[in-house]
Amino acid sequence: MAARRVWIAGHKGMVGSAITRLLEGRGETVMKVDRSVVDLRNQIAVEVWLKQNRPDAIVFAAAKVGGIYANDTYPADFIYDNLAIETNIIHSAHVAGVDRLVFLGSSCIYPKFAPQPITEDALLTGPLEPTNEWYAVAKIAGIKLCQAYRKQYGRRYISVMPCNLYGPNDNFDLQTSHVLPALIRKFHEAKQAGKPEVVVWGTGTPLREFLHVDDLARGVVFCLDNYDGYEHINCGAGSEVTIRELAETVQRAVGFSGRLVFDTTKPDGTPRKLMDSSRLRELGWAPTIPLEKGVADAYQWFLKREKAPDRSVVEAVG
Ligand code: GFB
């Protein structure tokens, strides 16, 4: 393959940093630009930067993301930031003549009661989960933008749909994070403080599909190299656990011996969102990191981050 320059939009986030590690590990040239230099919500800034730097391909890992509470509490931020970033990057990529782009969706943008496991054609067939409909509408628009520029201009823009992700560089803020990093932090702090219990939001019965971000990174790069279809393509672990089972897994990894308490005043969100990722598996990608090991590694990464003087600079574990 000829040498290519790939811009990872969102290179500091959990997904973008994992893809950066993978591509740089392969000796590829990764382009990065800091938020202080280009605010991705600013159309002019994005267009000028893309025209001046003209990557061969873009991995679109920049997004305003968060867990169930953040999505439900900051709907304007989730819909505005994501729509702005998407229209700016995708349109400017086209204007700058960038022919290849991989956009990232999310399994939470499928209908709340989609038949399980969820196949790609379930998108836009029913009402959305209310706690994240703002994010979902924006992400659906991103997929449609890729399809529109493909249809009208022949651009080779594709979309990959990940399930719930976890791993190095996750967000551990208890108000805005997803469940897995929140539980790592809660169990760790309860263990340290010798507390008798940890509070888990909701009933513990919702099912979620968790994929380690390094597996997702391999899936995204696999698609960059091998997939060029109009339809988005699912990239999931293929198995699911209840939130209670997840909590017990994190509890084991951390070594917390107290009990779990379920706070049913907090929302459960969607009951289940297991994707059917057989299309991508048939093309040749498969996950490699089992949840138990992935959670243990994520906890080790969290411990290293706790000790780092500058928490933003921590090498990935595993
Ligand atoms: O990970 P999470 O915030 O996102 O929550 P979603 C998953 C489940 O874990 C919900 C429960 O049933 C939560 O109630 N949970 C239990 C907790 N304890 C906690 C906790 O301490 N923190 C959090 N955050 N949850 C998000 C979407 O949905 O999934 C986003 O809102 C995004 O848009 C993301 O797509 C992947 O899976 O419910």
Write structural notes for this entry.
The chain has 318 residues and is α/β, with parallel strands linked by helices. Helix content is 42%, strand content 15%. The chain contains ten helices and twelve strands. The strands form four sheets. Strands 2-1-3-4-5-10 form a six-stranded parallel β-sheet, with helices on both faces. Helix 5 (133-153) links the parallel strand 4 (100-104) and strand 5 (156-162). Helix 4 packs parallel to helix 5 and helix 6 crosses helix 10 (291-307). The longest helix has 21 residues, at 75-95. It is globular and about 60 Å long. The model is unreliable at 313-318 (pLDDT under 50). The structure holds guanosine-5'-diphosphate-beta-L-fucopyranose (GFB). Residues 67-69, 71, 106, 108, 131-132, 135, 164, 177-179, 182, 200-202, 206, 208, 243, 266-269 line the site of guanosine-5'-diphosphate-beta-L-fucopyranose.
- Unreliable stretches: 313-318
Strands of the biggest beta sheet: in what spatial order? 2-1-3-4-5-10
Main structural class: alpha/beta
State mean pLDDT (0 to 100 scale).
96
The largest sheet is: 6 strands, parallel
| Series of secondary-structure elements, N-terminal to C-terminal | EHEHEHHEHEEHEEEHEEHEHH
Number of helices: 10
What fraction strand? 5-15%
What's the alpha carbon Rg, rounded to whole Å?
A: 19 Å
- Bound ions, cofactors and other small molecules, one mention each: guanosine-5'-diphosphate-beta-L-fucopyranose
Number of strands: 12
Instruction: Report the principal-axis shape.
Output: globular
Intertermini distance: 28 Å
Helix content: 40-55%
